[in-house]
Amino acid sequence: MEAERAHGVLYVKFIGDGDSSVYPTLLQNVPGWGHAIKKLECANHACKCYRGALERLVQDNPSYKGSGRLTLKIQKRLVSSARAAIRMRSQESDVRTALAALKHNLQSGPRHCFGMYQHCSTDFCKTAREKHSMPSSSSYSMNAPEIRDEADPDNEDLDTLAS
């Protein structure tokens, strides 16, 4: 490793995509300290994979196409909310709590996008906060749900996902 010889620098973390063959190569070729290297998944790659999986789901199941179903707009909202959840939870200091909250946010994302807010985290979803603060609100609209303030479907990040 040139950085170690020239500058005395040891790389202990690297960002890679889920398909990367770099990590196994590093573990094999780096001296003893190399086994401490941690791979960090790139949020962009995770969202790109999620978007691709949604596209394949619709392609393989034509009944998912059409109004009120898994439209392109809903797919963009799902990816946008996943990106927002990753961004929000990556800033939390307690990793275990952040992972549990991220898992919950990702699992409740589809319900949120179809207007069912009862499973949304109140710290992540504006509508859940509003409904939670209302004394008696048990009806959930299935029509055009409000976009959560943390996840903007018109976010410019979506344009990078399409490439």
- N- to C-terminal distance: 33 Å
| Overall average residue pLDDT | 76
Secondary structure: number of strands: 2
Helix content: 40-55%
- Give the neighbour order of strands across the main sheet: 1-2
- Judged by helices, strands and strand pairing, the structural class is mainly alpha
Secondary-structure element order, N to C: HEHEHHHHH
Number of helices: 7
Task: Report low-confidence residues grouped into runs of 5 or more.
Answer: 136-163
Molecular structure report:
With 163 residues, this protein is mainly alpha-helical. The protein folds into two domains: 2-41, no CATH class; 43-161, no CATH class. Helix content is 51%, strand content 5%. It has helices at residues 2-7, 22-29, 43-60, 72-90, 95-113, 126-133, 157-161, and strands at 13-16, 38-41. It has a two-stranded parallel sheet. β1 (13-16), α2 and β2 form a beta-alpha-beta unit. α3 packs antiparallel against α4 and α4 packs antiparallel against α5. The radius of gyration is 20 Å and the shape is flat.
Question: What topology does this entry show?
Answer:
Blueprint: H1 2-7, E1 13-16, H2 22-29, E2 38-41, H3 43-60, H4 72-90, H5 95-113, H6 126-133, H7 157-161
Helix pairs in contact: 3-4, 4-5
What keyword list fits this structure?
163 residues; mainly alpha; 2 domains; two-stranded parallel sheet; 7 helices; disordered C terminus
Question: Could you write a compact summary of the structure shown?
Answer:
This protein is mainly alpha-helical and 163 residues long.
